[in-house]
Write a structure and sequence with these properties.
The complex is a heterodimer of chains A (309) and B (327). Chain A is α/β, with parallel strands linked by helices and 309 residues long. In chain A, 30% of the residues lie in helices and 17% in strands. Helix content of chain B is 47%, strand content 16%. Classes of the chains: A alpha/beta (309), B alpha/beta (327).
């Protein structure tokens, strides 16, 4: 059973901590009583474990070495759970010999409105910039796949829940221009909680802005592929996420317009198992197919070759 | 519009209610004492009401503005269509699933010219509010809107959309039928529609639900409306983790017509009668009509291809970011 994740909390820019039932300690264990309180091992005897050496699958709790997971395209060897990965991981997987150029990385968000919730938006941005090397929630890579040029725009969930703001809109648009210039296909990998509320109506208008650019791509008869990964919600699915010539998704990804919490509160009923998962979307006719991450390169190559042929 | 005592009052409109009560009291006294002249007092009170209406709208907080946009007596889409046009022929259905009652539309005669009107519709009492699903359309509503837009395009008639929604409906069936896809498709198709498109926020303009019929050559916003990416309540619940910060959220989101015009995200503000559109439906509709008419005049002479290019270019400019110097 998958943990229920609060997607919305990522949109606040705070770190989300998912707690599942089995992570919680039972309140009392009557058969066992601790004799001495605290940690008694001396600091000298403490064994250091490098951070991130081991990885536990959030779905099946299978524990494996991170390098093993990496070799397996960050897919759980046991249950095929697709771990959430960064844009660069995708670029490495897709482009030939991991060679590509990252474009427009100098476009960064600014707090135009002076938006303050629990923290000023400007401060939030500073904090994230200090913590990660991410400039915003989308990166654009340009390279080749099996020798053919390709533009890939990919989201980073780590950056305020992969939220759609002015910067994503602008990078998306500029990436379309690159595809137009090189007459090559455009692949967008989505992973986002939705629009960036701190940019208010400006973030909403990115839906129209990106759609307008896609219209230019459509007129040029260049393929636009939308790959949806876990999770994709709100403004993304209400714009370019669902507008692909082909809409494809990774297995088990949660994809929808309204978040599960909101729907649950609206209809006042529990949601059916598998609701809003990729398989559900495929069944209801909104995806062309589900793509296993391990086959991403070959499937995309096959697709582009068919379109070229 | 409803007359006193059927009128409803928001908390900040209560001083007006008191004035009405005073008028009623005076009218009763006048009945009892026919010899005394109460008419002057009543006229004075009526004048005070007009002044009060002006006073109230002059200093509204963003949250009060949101409340005004949801005023239960506010005119809705069909009311405006009725007051602005003749020969309205309502068209139904998305040709796939059903007829969404939260989204209405059809051809009408707009001062001698045929125009396609489309908009969300809210109900005016408990029964019709349910029927209209509180103005929250399902995917079939957006697909119906798109069908009508395509119909207008085919017969070369301009499209006018009237937007008033607390959001697209967040339901289970809505997800099954692709709420996101429906809105996305509308945005994509509207931006390349060959006929003139004018969009007006007449009440609530909540996020994708509004934008799903809100991409056009000219976007107008009535004075006491709001338009942004999320409702202040939902924004409060997500960013502040409580439902109680809606007033602050409304301020932070900068969602009023003045803000949106200032940002260049809408083209014009349509003034409302003193105190808001709910005080005078006829006047509100006439002001709106003159604005739509003027916008249509301006757009008509632009060749279709240019119009589409200008539309794409307009949205492409929206947004603010910094560009760091490259090393």
């Amino acid at each position: 059973m998958r943990k229920e994740e609060d997607i919305e909390i990522n949109l606040t820019g705070e770190e989300a901590v998912a707690v599942s039932a089995d992570d919680r300690e039972p309140k009392e264990r009557k058969w066992f009583k601790r004799l001495r309180k605290g940690i008694t091992t001396s600091t000298a005897d403490k064994k250091e474990t490098p951070e991130g050496l081991w990885n536990k699958c959030p779905q099946c709790n299978y524990i494996c070495i991170t390098s093993e997971l990496e070799e397996n395209f960050y897919v759980c060897p046991k249950c095929n759970y697709h771990h959430r990965i960064s844009s660069v991981d995708y670029f490495d997987m897709i482009f030939d010999e991991q060679q590509y150029e990252i474009l427009f990385d100098n476009i960064v968000s600014k707090d135009f409105l002076g938006f303050t919730d629990l923290k000023p938006y400007g401060k939030r941005l500073e904090e994230i910039h200090a913590k990660t090397d991410l400039k915003d929630s989308m990166r654009v890579g340009f390279g080749t796949l099996n020798g053919a040029k390709l533009v890939v725009a990919c989201m980073d969930f780590e950056f305020i829940g992969g939220s759609l703001g002015s910067v994503m809109g602008e990078k998306f648009s500029k990436a379309v221009d690159v595809a137009l210039q090189h007459q090559c296909p455009y692949l967008v990998i989505s992973k986002s909680g939705g629009a960036r509320m701190m940019e208010s109506a400006f973030s909403l208008m990115q839906l129209a802005k990106t759609s307008g650019k896609l219209s230019m791509l459509a007129d040029a008869k260049l393929p636009y592929i939308s790959l949806l990964t876990d999770p994709t919600f709100g403004g993304i699915s209400a714009s370019f996420g669902m507008l692909g010539d082909l809409n494809i998704a990774e297995p088990g990804a949660l994809i929808g317009f309204a978040g599960p919490r909101v729907i649950k509160e609206t209809i006042k009923k529990d949601l059916p198992e598998g609701f809003q998962r990729s398989e559900f979307l495929l069944e209801h006719g909104f995806l062309d197919f589900i793509i296993d991450r391990k086959t991403i390169r070959e499937k995309l190559d096959q697709l582009f070759a068919l379109l070229r042929g | 519009m409803p007359q006193y005592p059927n009128r409803q009052f928001l908390d900040f409109e209560l001083p007006i209610k008191e004035l009405y009560e005073q008028i009623e009291a005076n009218k009763k006294l006048a009945e009892k004492n026919p010899k005394v002249d109460y008419q002057t007092v009543i006229q004075q009170l009526e004048q005070t009401i007009v002044e009060k209406r002006q006073e109230i709208t002059a200093e509204l907080t963003p949250w009060q503005r949101v409340k005004l946009s949801r005023h239960p007596d506010r005119p809705y889409t069909l009311k405006y269509i009725d007051k602005m046009t003749t020969d309205f022929l309502e068209l139904h259905g998305d040709r796939n699933v059903k007829d969404d009652k939260a989204m209405v539309g059809g051809f009408a005669n707009f001062d001698g010219e045929t125009v396609m009107f489309i908009g969300q519709q809210k109900g005016i009492n408990t029964k019709t509010r349910q029927l209209r699903n509180f103005g929250m359309a399902n995917p079939e509503g957006y697909r119906k809107a798109l069908r009508l837009m395509k119909l207008a395009e085919k017969f070369n008639k301009p499209v006018v959309t009237l937007i008033d929604t607390p959001g697209a409906f967040p339901g289970l069936e809505a997800e099954e039928r692709g709420q996101g896809e429906a809105i996305a498709r509308n945005i994509f198709e509207m931006i390349r529609l060959k006929v003139p498109v004018i969009c007006v926020i007449i009440g609530e303009g909540a996020s994708g639900g509004a934008l799903g019929i809100g991409v056009g050559d000219k976007v107008l916003m009535m004075e006491n409306t709001w338009y942004t990416v999320i409702s202040p309540e939902s924004c409060s619940s997500i960013l502040w983790r409580t439902w109680d910060k809606k007033e602050v959220a409304a301020e932070q989101l900068r969602l009023t017509s003045m803000d949106m015009k200032g940002f260049g995200l809408v083209d014009e503000i349509v003034p409302e009668p003193l105190g808001g559109a709910h005080w005078d439906y006829d006047a509100a509709a006439q002001i709106l009509k003159s604005h739509i008419k003027q916008a249509l005049q301006e757009l008509k002479h632009i060749p279709p291809q240019t119009r589409v290019e200008q539309r794409i270019a307009k949205y492409e400019k929206m947004g603010h970011w910094d560009v760091l110097p490259t090393e």
